[in-house]
Amino acid sequence: MDYENVAGGTLKFKGGGSISKKKKKKTDASKVKAALDSESPTAKPVKLIEKTAAELKFEEVQKKRQEEKVHKQAMKSHKEKVAELNRKLEEMTEHYDIPKVGPG
Fold first, then answer.
1. Where are the annotated coiled coils located (predicted)?
2. pLDDT number for residue 38
């Protein structure tokens, strides 16, 4: 056989030290969860981030626009949707057309 002289068993590293797996660091989310779970007075309180007036106004306007868009789509009948799609398709240039270059 060709494989008779092959040594079996696990690989051994120089120095004879054993391999130890690295411990994973705790993420911020797990730290916050641990702080919330432990009700000891030594845990730091979690600070909630308040949104500014501009951020609140922005979200309000975004919601309003989304609602108007949904309402506008809901008002269309199937026939109108198909007609609009056909109109868009006709306005598009056909990307697979071979452009005419040069004379003739």
1. 49-95
2. 63
For residues 36-68, b (16+ Cβ closer than 10 Å) or e, as one string? Answer: eeeeeeeeeeeeeeeeeeeeeeeeeeeeeeeee
Half-sphere exposure of 41 (CA within 13 A, CB side): 0
Name the average pLDDT for the chain. Answer: 79
Whole-prediction pTM value? 0.36
Sorted by where each begins, the domain ranges of the chain are 50-92
Rounded Cα distance between 35 and 12, Å, is: 43
* Nearest partner of 38 among 49, 46, 48, 26, judged by Cα: 46
